[in-house]
Here is the input.
Amino acid sequence: MNDLLQTIEPVTLMGPGPSCVHSSVLDALAKPTLGHLDPDFIRIMDAIKQQLKTLLHTRNALTLPISGTGSAGMECSFVNLIEKNDPVLILINGVFGMRMQDVATRLGADVDTLEFDWGTPVIVDVVQKQLSKKTYKLVAVVHAETSTGVMNPVSGIGSLLKNKETLFLVDAVTSFGGTDIFMDDWGIDVLYSGTQKCLSCPPGLSPVSFSRAAVDVIEARKTKVPNWYLDLSLIMNYWEGATRAYHHTAPVNMLYGLYQALCLILEEGETRVFERHMKTHLQLVRELDHLGIRMHVDAACRLPMLNAVCIPDGVDDADVRTRLLKQYKIEIGAGLGPLAGKIWRIGLMGHTARPENVEKLIQALKAVLPPLRDR
Amino acid sequence: MNDLLQTIEPVTLMGPGPSCVHSSVLDALAKPTLGHLDPDFIRIMDAIKQQLKTLLHTRNALTLPISGTGSAGMECSFVNLIEKNDPVLILINGVFGMRMQDVATRLGADVDTLEFDWGTPVIVDVVQKQLSKKTYKLVAVVHAETSTGVMNPVSGIGSLLKNKETLFLVDAVTSFGGTDIFMDDWGIDVLYSGTQKCLSCPPGLSPVSFSRAAVDVIEARKTKVPNWYLDLSLIMNYWEGATRAYHHTAPVNMLYGLYQALCLILEEGETRVFERHMKTHLQLVRELDHLGIRMHVDAACRLPMLNAVCIPDGVDDADVRTRLLKQYKIEIGAGLGPLAGKIWRIGLMGHTARPENVEKLIQALKAVLPPLRDR
Here is the structure.
């Protein structure tokens, strides 16, 4: 193997993703490639669909991983549901809400937005008020806003939309696998995620799930989906049924990895996995507090898996991150957009969410940071 | 690791892709995941760009792998270049030419097509005649038509377009890594490929390359690219320059695999790799002839890496393929569309193109096929 690969040293991935990957998932990636129509591979595809349904608590038949990263899942969700001038409401309190707005606008949707301060959650009452003024085809929100560390009240927003024709679309890129998601009970019609966050599989796939109501909307489209690669009516024919019509060549080895990553979560048990995320999060907050480092987000709506941390005054953002990476082989994330230079994003996602990783980071921070005021 | 993965037995992949993957490429996939902004990973990204430029014989700065399979590369090429009502000419002699037509039509292009019999190549004179009648923004053709086993005269078509404003788009999904491609000399402006054919990396990535003229067209767009995920003006900012602006999380481990697969080709040397493809192809044709099995395509325009073979009369297509897979662990491909049930597609792509694999297949065919007439 070439030098650039031989010399890769493991990094403790504590940024906003990718997260640390269990060795059995890496081993899975390296299993022999099978054909994308091989019955042994189709068995793995079927198992993945079932695993995703179990973990999302949904009965949606159309539940599968898209052959692209989390952002491909976002693209896929909008492009299949939206036709020109469709009224869409997007709830924004961070970069990924803004990305949704960009995606939907490019597709010609009639996009309204409600914006909330970055670092605070979407307010359900404000959404309710807007819904009383106008009828939307689709309302979209990010569950775990990775850019700010805020958890949005998805079940509350879902309640507003129950028994309405409006579809409810949720970005679960960072939340899936790290906290509760009850897709059917919460009235979520469409959900997409990514593999490189709490599922702790390398980046490259995007699990999506579409309700019957969402599939009805796709089937009733007046125009063809203006994206052949992500057209679910075609992709479905490969992932379902007896025929398995070829669409594109599935990323076989990546799917092995996802399957194994989902096996690990199911073996450990959802409840324990979520508790582990919460415990390490609380450990991190406590230890950072001892160092005099404050959290950016109120305790009531903090994400356990992605901790937005205020960079202490007088500390050089990039220098600290570089030293953590070079000297301690720990990666943490920078702030995005208006939060660049103001926060660090410390991920405790999936396999990363272990007490020893928190301890390792805290020791490294103690060594790297200058003495802080006001401890 | 879970049972479904533990029990995967290696298959000799002799279908239309994926092809056999070298063990060092599988090992590369399993190297520890790095962050997508880690300097050590960015070094690998830079190396991949250079490898692709070398193998495509191009100086195009915009040369990189898209985070999706070959069909995502097709989508990416059209969606970045096409705006509503743009006149486009697509040359069709198989499934993948038809797919181009579908992709371009969904994007609102004004699509003209020239159709040629399946199993025969595009005729340059016919294209020339059409180009004298109408000016196109873009002419598109598939280099190696995987559905029929035909090589199209890409350099000949390119000559017609030199010094014209029309962009020349080539699908090199199956040809790249198995036969000559001189992107710049042949006047190709846009090219996409896939990793799972002659590059012998698992499916999941699509190398693309865009000429300066093509980038100028992107930069002069009147409308935003209606596909955020595949918007090259955004993707470029991650793959180029000092800043490396985050767009989506790159499929890190898949890129390790691609890097190693490209290293193998460069180490063996292009000329030797292409000779190996041609030699095993001629060996296969000779051996099949001894069995009384004819080729579907004239010798003059046969693909070395994808052999379309007439299914002998009275032979049960699916039964033979199933027995080859179950009893001999060899995968060959079925025919697509109008060629379903009429041909098999025998891939000799990349790592698969070795004399011992041809021999293994021939022995298995001898055992599986009923005695054939007219040997």
In short: Residues 3-17+269-368 of chain A form a domain with the Aspartate Aminotransferase, domain 1 fold (CATH 3.90.1150.10). Chain A touches chain B through 76 residues (CB under 8 Å).
